[in-house]
Structure formats: structure tokens, C-alpha cells
Amino acid sequence: MFNSKSKIFRYFLLCFVIGVGLASFSDFDYFFVYLLILIFGVSGLIFWPHKFWRWLFLGGAIIGLGIFRYQLSLPKTDETKIWFYNNQRLTFQGLVIGEPDVRINHTKLTVAANGPVVNGERRAVEGKVLINVSLYPEYQYGDLVEVNCQLKPPEPFNGFAYDRYLAINDVYSQCSYPRVKLISRGNADWLLGQIFGFKNKLNAIINYNLPEPQASLFSAIILGSRRGIPQELSDQFNITGTSHLVAISGLNITIITAILMQLGLAFYLPRQKVFWFVTAALILYMILIGFPASAVRAAIMGWLVILAMYLGRLNRSTNALIFAASLMILINPKILRDDVGFQLSFCAVLGLIYLSPLFEKWLEKIPSALGLRESLQMTLAAQISTLPLIVYNFGRLSLIGPVANLLVLPTSSYLMAAGLLAIFLSLLAPVIAQYLFWPVWLILTYLIKVVEFLALVPLAALNF
Fold this sequence. Notes:
The chain has helices at residues 5-25, 30-46, 51-73, 162-167, 190-209, 214-223, 231-239, 250-266, 271-289, 293-311, 318-331, 335-338, 340-354, 356-362, 372-394, 401-408, 412-428, 433-436, 438-455, and strands at 89-96, 101-102, 107-118, 121-122, 128-133, 144-150, 171-176, 179-184, 396-398, 461-463. By secondary structure, the chain is α+β, with helices and mostly antiparallel strands. Helix 8 packs parallel to helix 10 (293-311), helix 9 (271-289) packs antiparallel against helix 10 and helix 17 (412-428) packs antiparallel against helix 19 (438-455). The longest helix is centred in the N-terminal third of the chain and has 23 residues, at 51-73.
């Protein structure tokens, strides 16, 4: 078990993840954690000549460090934290620190508070508040606002741990439809503000050149903006197990990057050129959508897959995957239990590493024209490896899901390529923009029709 450096490295990483996992589901006393680390650390030194006991005790110490790291991420409540004032009505100033999340009937703003007024006295505090406001007036990233509302702690609903979901990003307070006064604009990072402004311009191009619901669907797929997708269509994507398509999800990015790499190799392009092209495309895409943390984590997972393909060692990239996951968990331990996107990304990459080679043998008779065989291979591997997580987290088993994904996922890479090309050419030649979007409209219409048809199949999905 401990006969190589790579195995020892993997063992320590897994011990750290186990420690974070234990702390995610249980409460540990700080003294107990310190004692655990001390006892196991000292025992490892005492038994150093005995290889098995040495690594066993040192692994126990690493588990203790994982528990300690998770505990450090938990919120400390005092008068300097905005969530200390939950269940109170107060006025506070804050900065909109994220891109406004525009929904069908409201907008979500993440505001970093910098001082509530309590009993006529402004206090220095820190912390984020999630605010639901009306669609109009519109607010932007970098707006300094004054908010008057009843702060409330997030609570679970319908079996969804909404409080833990928001805690991933250190949000422990929320309020709905407060009185908001705009004080000034342009107070945050200039570069990120320019990126969000450019993203809004691209959204406008999409809305002008595509009809509904194709425009809303394309904005969701390529920019992560879900505003305007009809509820009925959204439900149909859920029934057919293709809802990951209408969000910038870890599963989607992982599959698309792998398919792009395989497509390049299928067309006999040099492995090195394909790798750098997909890497550059991934970086540009992250810039385009504004570096949301969940998408960045997914992009790192997807990049590991294409790196393994580039090196020709897909089945030997387990250590790199575990190292990347451990590093992300070290930075934010809460993602291990509560970030479904992170979990899906990790499982999808595992599927591509271990299941994809199996499907490569089974799909030998499928033609490789236009990358069909490669797309099916990647899709099946990722879907099967993530299926238990999807059923557990969303309470739905899509029986029609494998068929639906086989029919729609191979078109994702073509949709992304055609869509991005149409958007950027539209910036250069807006006169011909509508013609450039015809292929995009055709692919989107195909996706919608397939999903609508399969959602009507009897027993398409089972709900738990």
C-alpha cells in the first residue's frame, strides 16, 4: 500500500478529505481535534521505523488537520458580523459584489455590507447579504446601495438545504424586497465590471437575433443566464435528465472539454495543438462568464481530463484529480458536502478516466464521423458515473435520460462553436447577424424538440 511516493501522496490527500468529510457531518470539540493531531503525530514519530504504523498514525494526524480546516471555515458570530443582526430590521450600506442574478420575476443581489445603523449608530461590520429585489430598477455589479430590510437567516425548504448552499459562499443573511437606495456606481473591480458589461452586450445580441425560447435557452447554455426560460420547458429538461445543459455546470463543462479534445484527435489534428486550443478556449470562456467560483472549479476538472488526454495517460491521472479536488477543498472545505456541482464534476472526471476506456471497446462499430463515437463514449461514461449523485440530490431518476443525453449532448460542442462564432462575427458585422444565427437556431430547435418529445414518453422519469 505504501510502496511508492505517489501512493503515499494519494493516501495523505484522501486522509485530509476524510477529515473534512467527518467534520462536515459531525461537530468536534477543538480540544479533541488538537489532542487527536498531537497523539497521532507523536505516535507516527515513535513508530517511524515501522512503515505501516508510521503512515497509519501520520494519516490519522492528517485526518485531524482536515477536521480542523473545516472548523476554521465555520462562521464566527459577534457584533462585527452582519448575520449577528438576523431577525432585526435595520438599515445598512453595502456593495453589490457579484453579477446580478436575473430571474423571471425578480433579481438576486449579493451585497457586501459595510456598516448597519443600529440605534442611530453606524457600526463597522462585514459579511454578505443575499437580497431579492424587483426586476426594475436594475442594479449592477459595483453599485453602492443603502438597504432597509428585515434580515433573516437562510432556511431549508422542500428538502433542499438552502442555508448550507448559501454558506458555501459565506452568505448567512438574506432579505426580500427591501427599500433600496442607489448611492453611487462603479465602485468595484474595473476589469470585472467591464467583463460583466460585455456579457450584457452579448446577451442583447442573442435576444435580438434569436426568437424565444431559443434565445433564453442559448443564454443559459453559453452565458449562464436562465432568465426567460419557460417553466414548462425547464421541467421537461429535468424530466429528461438534461437540465445540466441549461446551466454552466461542472458536468457540462467536463463533457464538452473532453468531447472537443476527442474531436480534434478524431480529425487527426496534432495532439499538442488541440490541447492548447481547448485550454485557450476554456480560459476565454471563464473570462467571458466572469469567473464564477463553481464554473472555475468545473473548468479545472475539465482541464485535467484534456491534460490527461494530451499526455496520453488518461488512466494514470487519478492523483492529479485527487490533488486538484483536495486543493479546492482546502480553499473552501464546505464544497465537499454541499456543492453538488463540485461533486458532479469530480464524478464525471472519474467516469471519463475509468469508464470511458470500457466504452471505447464497446463502441468500436459506431462510426467516428463528426466525432459521433467519441461523443457517445464521453457522454455515457460521465452520465453513468454521476447518476447516483443526481438521483440522491434531486430525487428523480430519469429513465429516458440516457437516450436524451445521447441525442442532445453530442450537439453541445457544435452549438458552443457555432454560437460563439455567430456572436463575435455579429460584433464585427451586425448587418448579417441574423444569418449567422441560423445554424444556432437550428441546433437549439433540435434540442427543444427532442426534449419536448421525450418528456412525453410514459414513465420517462421516476420521482422519489
